[in-house]
Amino acid sequence: MIDLAIIGGGPAGLSAGLYATRGGLKNVVMFEMGMPGGQITGSSEMENYPGVSTVMDGMSFMAPWQEQCFRFGLKHEMKNVARVSKNSDESFSIFLDDGGEIRAKAVIVCTGSEPRRAGFKGENEFFGRGVSTCATCDGFFYKNKEVAVLGGGDTALEEAIYLANIVSKVYLIHRRDGFRAAPITVEKAKKNEKIEFITNAVVDEVYGDQSGVTGVKVKFKNGDIRDLKVPGIFTFVGLNVRNSVIKDENGNFICETTQSGQIKVDLKMQTSLKGLYAAGDIRQDAPKQVVSAAGDGAVAALSAMSYIESLK
Ligand code: FAD
Ligand code: NAP
Question: Could you tell me if 255 and 219 lie in one domain?
Answer without folding.
Answer: no
